[in-house]
């Protein structure tokens, strides 16, 4: 007898294909093992962005690799599990390939929706909160259709090399900065501040769930509302499970 599907899962920030962790391929295999472990009881899985360290879809070309992960998503979709992918700041350029190949639903920007009786606000995290003018400028440029068209006219051999080098340098600079800031409250503050402000005019939100910050946070806004930052699949291998009654954060071993 098939196990009753009853859970909704959330995960974020695997950065598959990156060049700055010890073994990105092992991360992919571990992610696939987790997906295999939940395929019988999952209603839906929400990936909150940056599952790929770089993803750009040309009309006839997509990034090579990730076959285990994409194959597992296709298997789950065929089993009836809903696959939802929010674009992050590293995989903004997901267009229609994954929707056509595995039936995934692709989103740009935050989602507000009801899940098993509670109201959720879902976002990667880069599109909310305070950021520098430089970050906002780059974000607007990367999402601009004209800029995307011009970028796609360059041969993939050049664009992929450029993006991978940019990502590597950006991450290394970020790691250097993090050595001076060890307080997770500071790292989480922009998202918590956003949630507190948004909650004042939207008190119906029960859970704000974000990725992006690569930390695990479970912060109470009120007796009926919380902010959750989902960690990542680079150091925590963390995921969130919601069964309609309890919402918990766990690490996959």
Please name the defining characteristics of this protein.
about 250 residues, alpha/beta, six-stranded mixed sheet, five-stranded mixed sheet, 7 helices, about 35% helix, globular
Secondary-structure-based class equals alpha/beta
Q: How much helix is in the residues?
A: 25-40%
> Count of helices?
7
- H/E series: EHEHEHEEEHHHHEEEEE
Using only CA atoms, what is the Rg?
A: 18 Å
Q: What global shape is seen?
A: globular
* Unreliable runs: 175-182
> Could you give the count of β-strands?
11
The amount of beta strand, in percent, is 15-25%
Task: Characterise this structure.
- With 253 residues, this protein is α/β, with parallel strands linked by helices.
- Helices cover 37% and strands 21% of the residues.
- It has helices at residues 24-38, 67-78, 97-102, 133-143, 145-152, 156-178, 184-201; strands spanning 7-11, 42-47, 82-86, 105-107, 111-115, 118-123, 207-210, 216-220, 226-230, 238-242, 247-251.
- The strands form two sheets. Strands 4-3-2-1-10-11 form a six-stranded mixed beta sheet. It has a five-stranded mixed beta sheet with strand order 5-6-7-9-8, covered by helices on one side.
- Helix 2 links the parallel strand 2 (42-47) and strand 3 (82-86).
- Helix 1 runs parallel beside helix 2 (67-78).
- The longest helix has 23 residues, at 156-178.
- The two termini are 27 Å apart.
Short recap of the structure:
The protein is of the alpha/beta class.
């Amino acid at each position: 007898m098939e196990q009753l599907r009853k859970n909704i899962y959330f995960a974020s920030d695997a950065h598959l294909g990156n060049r700055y962790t010890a073994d990105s391929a092992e991360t992919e295999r571990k992610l696939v093992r987790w997906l295999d472990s939940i395929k019988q009881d999952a209603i839906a899985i929400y990936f909150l962005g940056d599952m790929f360290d770089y993803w750009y879809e040309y009309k006839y070309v997509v990034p090579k690799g990730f076959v285990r992960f994409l194959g597992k998503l296709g298997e789950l979709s065929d089993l009836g599990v809903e696959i939802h992918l929010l674009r992050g700041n590293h995989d903004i350029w997901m267009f229609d390939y994954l929707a056509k190949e595995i039936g995934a639903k692709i989103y740009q920007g935050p989602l507000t929706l009801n899940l098993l009786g509670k109201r959720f606000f879902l976002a990667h995290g880069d599109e909310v909160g305070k950021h520098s003018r430089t970050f906002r400028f780059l974000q607007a440029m990367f999402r601009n259709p004209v800029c995307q068209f011009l970028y796609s006219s360059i041969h993939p051999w050049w664009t992929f090399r450029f993006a991978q080098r940019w990502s590597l340098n950006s991450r290394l600079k970020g790691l250097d900065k993090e050595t001076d800031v060890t307080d997770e409250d500071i790292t989480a503050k922009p998202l918590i501040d956003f949630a507190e402000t948004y909650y004042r005019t939207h008190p119906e939100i029960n859970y704000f769930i974000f990725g992006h910050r690569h930390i695990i946070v479970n912060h109470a806004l009120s007796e009926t509302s919380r902010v959750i930052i989902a960690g990542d699949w680079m150091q925590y291998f963390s995921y969130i499970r919601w069964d309609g009654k309890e919402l918990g954060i766990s690490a996959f071993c």
